[in-house]
UniProtKB/TrEMBL annotation:
<dbReference type="InterPro" id="IPR050491">
    <property type="entry name" value="AmpC-like"/>
</dbReference>
<protein>
    <recommendedName>
        <fullName>Beta-lactamase-related domain-containing protein</fullName>
    </recommendedName>
</protein>
<dbReference type="InterPro" id="IPR006311">
    <property type="entry name" value="TAT_signal"/>
</dbReference>
<dbReference type="Pfam" id="PF00144">
    <property type="entry name" value="Beta-lactamase"/>
</dbReference>
<dbReference type="InterPro" id="IPR012338">
    <property type="entry name" value="Beta-lactam/transpept-like"/>
</dbReference>
<feature type="domain" description="Beta-lactamase-related">
    <location>
        <begin position="52"/>
        <end position="392"/>
    </location>
</feature>
<dbReference type="InterPro" id="IPR001466">
    <property type="entry name" value="Beta-lactam-related"/>
</dbReference>
Length: 414
């Protein structure tokens, strides 16, 4: 063990995790061996799963992440719900009820709401966006081929690698439309509709935040209700999820963690040109409500993931199966994007997941064929170490695979 790099086993030896909460001290991975940081770990955990703590703390230490949170469930039983606070920067204590921006883990939420409308007969997968929404004169006649099913699977024909991501191009859109910042969702739709598609709909997977903006608008049009209200009533309330809410660019919610980045950028919330901390104004959270707008805890997310098991009042097994099926573009090396989820085929079943990334946010939600589900959330996505944040995915899979036996019980029950 060195001061330069810590493994989860190093942290397991250092910490000696006990009980539902602990005050821990561990060497800072990027500092001299004599420099120590206080760790606060809060929340319940079943005996035998402490290696998850070591994994998350080692990951956070190497990247100097102030706050993180993890929840793990198996077959609907909550096995641990932990909050991790790394000392320094005046870090507040993080617990299982601390709220984080979900970033693109919002997409399984929006997809569940759309699938519920389909299940209830209020919407069809084949319905065309041009029939559902009044989006103005289209520059590309192929827009009539964009359906609800294709929006869910990122097959609408918009490709951010070709033409950029309009959900994060506020300054250019404001300039093109001749209007001041901030722009709104209607401005984004007007701007994109006036531009040609990058691909024929249904022919190529291209991840599109804009496509999920349209799905959110479709939810509002079909239900006659605000997006968040319908999602709460139709998706979240039946699961007992009460904390989730839409986030805001500048006004934090009660219990929401602060966000950190090493970068600054130009605000898109007004036309002042002011330089601001990247998590607070370099993107418009309100405009991105339908594609990356929710605040949640990891516990909320693992409960939400249960919807896609087809065993909750939200979606039946008959609704889930086609939603996770291979799309019209097929699978590539056993991988594809279904309705709101990345999917990997294995010899034992499907692994589905979604990650999320915004300035100040990195999130991951995973469902496995063996009944395991986990969600992890951090209040930072970049740091001087240059270490990739996507590595938490492999680290958590390896930790889960190393558990010799899963304990009985549920931390939510006495």
């Amino acid at each position: 063990m060195t001061a330069d790099r810590f493994t989860r086993r190093d942290f397991g030896r250092l910490a000696g995790f006990v009980g539902a909460a602990a005050l821990l001290t561990a060497p800072q991975g990027t500092a001299r061996a004599g420099d120590r940081r206080a760790w606060r770990v809060a929340g319940p955990i079943l005996h035998g799963l402490e290696e998850f703590d070591a994994t998350v703390m080692a990951f956070m230490e190497e990247r100097s992440i102030p706050c993180g949170s993890l929840a793990v469930a198996r077959d609907g039983r909550l096995l641990l719900a932990r909050g991790y606070s790394r000392g320094g920067r005046g870090t507040r204590e993080t617990g299982p009820t601390s709220l984080f921006r979900t970033a693109s883990v919002t997409k399984p939420v929006t997809a569940a709401a759309v699938l519920r409308l389909i299940q209830d007969g209020r919407l069809r997968p084949s319905d065309r966006v041009t029939d559902l929404l009044h989006i103005g004169a289209a520059a590309d006649p192929r827009l009539t081929e964009v359906t609800v099913a294709r929006l869910l699977r990122h097959l609408g024909g918009w490709d951010r690698e070709v033409s950029g991501d309009p959900m994060f191009d506020d300054v250019a859109i404001a300039k093109a439309l001749g209007r001041p910042l901030p722009i709104g969702p209607d401005d984004i739709v007007r701007y994109v509709t006036a531009r040609p598609l990058d691909h024929a709909p249904g022919t190529a997977f291209a991840y599109s935040n804009y496509g999920y903006l349209l799905l959110g608008r479709i939810i509002e049009k079909v239900t006659g209700r605000p997006y968040a209200t319908y999602v709460r009533d139709a998706v979240l309330a039946p699961l007992g999820v009460t904390r989730m809410r839409l986030g805001h660019t500048l006004a934090p919610a009660a219990g929401e963690v602060p966000y950190y980045s090493q970068y600054k950028g130009t605000t898109v919330m007004d036309s002042s040109g002011a330089q601001v901390a990247a998590p607070y104004g370099t993107f418009n959270q309100e405009n991105n409500a339908f594609n990356c707008g929710w605040l949640a805890t990891p516990v909320d997310l693992v409960r939400l993931a249960r919807v896609y098991d087809g065993v909750t009042p939200v979606l039946s097994a008959g609704s889930v199966a086609p939603a996770l099926a291979i799309p019209e573009t097929g699978a590539r090396r056993g991988r594809y994007y279904a309705c709101g989820w990345h999917v990997r085929q294995t010899g034992r079943g499907l692994v589905t997941w979604h990650s999320g990334s915004l300035p100040g946010t990195h999130t991951l939600l995973v469902r496995r064929f063996d009944g395991l589900t986990w969600a992890v959330m951090f209040d930072q996505r970049d740091d001087p170490s240059g270490e990739p944040y996507r590595d938490i995915d492999t680290a958590l899979h390896e930790t889960a695979d190393d558990i010799p036996g899963w304990p009985p019980g549920d931390v939510t029950r006495p």
